[in-house]
Specification:
single chain; Rossmann fold; D-amino Acid Aminotransferase, Chain A, domain 1; 3 domains; six-stranded antiparallel β-sheet; globular
Length: 318
């Protein structure tokens, strides 16, 4: 494999799949395929991993590297990464264990806490378990109201309910557990919502912080808001005091390293009134659409999208 000029490599861009985020993943994959071609790659093929014969095509197609543009289950959770490992095919972004741990928000919280990164209090509930009235009362006593109920292993705000009263809790838990093994019930931290992109392998760099503004009528940065035009909801750089801005970047790089991320990560935080950034989750394959957060931040730092995608290929081969 000649890596002196990565544009000579044959790249398989993996997208689609079977998760709730299939269509978003296809948008990311199409955008990355276009960007790699603009960056000078002559051999770039987009493959929907849900297509017939996908494994055979990936194994026999003569690819030098896989560019993983997948989100959600089977794509961001270590499954497709494991396949690439079996095929001895280099791939972008994080390895199997990191991908699995970061996807499971309840497990990732253990890593955050051990690394000294503040994260909201939470309770884990096995999917399918119907909490008794006493259990629900204990949850509310422990976490307060309002709170968020979410799948422990999903993304793009699927299955999340903003619970504002006790009678909403049972249904919210049922919704979050429909296609997941664990439900995360988390205290609602109030403050400024930000996201901190990080790029790099062993020596990562935090990019400019984006302040996320849900907009009028939105309770939080939900699925609808997330894929509206970025200029409606992204404020960059985030309007934070200099010391708090630096602290959030420090925590994001700490999460990147503690989880073992490679290539890129994007950690979401709520900054409370006292200036504490509380980490919510870390995305190991951030969105790569025209409205996505990481490409927005990279562009602000002078890294255009084609160059960014090329960098990810280079990092995959380090």
């Amino acid at each position: 494999m000649d890596i002196n000029d990565v544009t000579k490599l044959k790249v398989a861009v993996l997208g689609g799949g079977w998760s709730d985020e299939r269509e978003i993943s296809m948008d990311s994959a199409r955008a990355c395929t276009k960007a790699l071609k603009q960056a000078g790659f002559a051999q770039v093929e987009l493959i929907d991993v849900a297509s017939e014969g996908f494994v055979s095509r990936l194994a026999t197609g003569g690819y030098d590297v896989a560019f993983i543009a997948m989100h959600g289950r089977w794509g961001e959770d270590g499954c497709v990464q494991g396949l690439c490992e079996v095929l001895h095919l280099p791939y972008t972004f994080s390895k199997v264990l990191t991908s699995a741990v970061a996807t499971e928000k309840d497990v990732a919280k253990l890593i955050y806490r051990s690394a000294g990164i503040p994260t909201p209090k939470s309770v884990d509930i096995p999917a399918g378990h119907v909490p008794t009235a006493e259990e629900r009362a204990q949850i509310i006593e422990s976490l307060g109201l309002p709170l968020f109920v979410k799948p422990a292993a999903n993304g793009s705000s699927y299955g999340i309910t903003h619970v504002t009263s006790a009678d909403m809790l049972e249904e919210a838990i049922a919704v979050a557990g429909r296609d997941n093994d664990v439900v995360l019930v988390e205290e609602a931290i109030s403050g400024i919502e930000i996201t901190v992109p990080v790029i790099g392998n062993d020596d990562p760099q935090a990019l400019d912080i984006i302040e996320v503004v849900p907009g009028e009528g939105a309770e939080f940065y939900d699925l609808k808001v997330k894929y509206e035009p970025s200029e409606l909801h992204h404020v960059m750089p985030a309007r934070l005091p200099e010391d708090i801005y630096a602290k959030a970047q420090e925590y994001a790089m700490c999460a990147h390293k503690a989880l073992g991320c490679r290539g890129a990560s994007r950690s979401d935080f709520i900054v409370t009134a006292d200036g504490t950034p509380y980490i919510l989750e870390t995305n190991t394959i951030p969105g790569m659409t025209e409205t996505s957060l990481l490409p927005d931040s990279a562009r602000h730092a002078g890294i255009e999208f084609p160059e960014l995608c090329r960098k990810f290929v280079e990092m995959a081969l380090e």
